[in-house]
Amino acid sequence: MPDHLYAVLAAQRVLPVLRDTDADEAVRHTTALLAVGCRAVELTTSTPGWAAAVSRTAPLSDVRGRPALLGVGTVTTTAQAETALDAGAAFLVSPYPAPEVRAVAVRREAVFIEGGFTPGEIASAVRAGGAAKVFPAHVGGPGFLRSLRAVLPEAVIIPTGGIRPAEVPEWLAAGATAVGIGGGLPSDPGELAAVFAPVAFAGRAPHGAAAER
Q: Which end of the chain has the smaller Cβ count within 10 Å, N or C?
């Protein structure tokens, strides 16, 4: 599963991070994203009723009939990790190093994208699971990511925090495998579809990610 998820993220280029007001809104947003070709979506524990939203959306498929990959972000405790996986989450994401979540992921053989900001934190996450979330990414900017990529050439790196959709190409050029977007995604179906249009590197396995099948 890790290689498969990472390939999906590399082809998709943008990972939506949904912080909604309730479970119904999270389900609506997730369904809209799946309908325009987005396959991997991250819901967050800051959404009231998030576990129910995961249970309702995890069995869905995207517009091409491929199973959705619903992740849960802002996971920082053992209880949250267990609840997310029990609800059907395909992966877990933390905003910072979370050893207790890592332990659950190892025990349950789940994908965990661990957050970090310093090079040491990011390298530790990569050693553990092959991937890291760089947060808050806007503080260091694309230049910081280029420096990280120089010493972690094969890692799956997902910068998140303070990044707008229009800035995605700059982050990809700096070495991001995919870019986490928590705000600014358009609501218009056509504009939303354009965000997830096929990109040049889809299927080529950039930065250590196997090609999506």
A: C
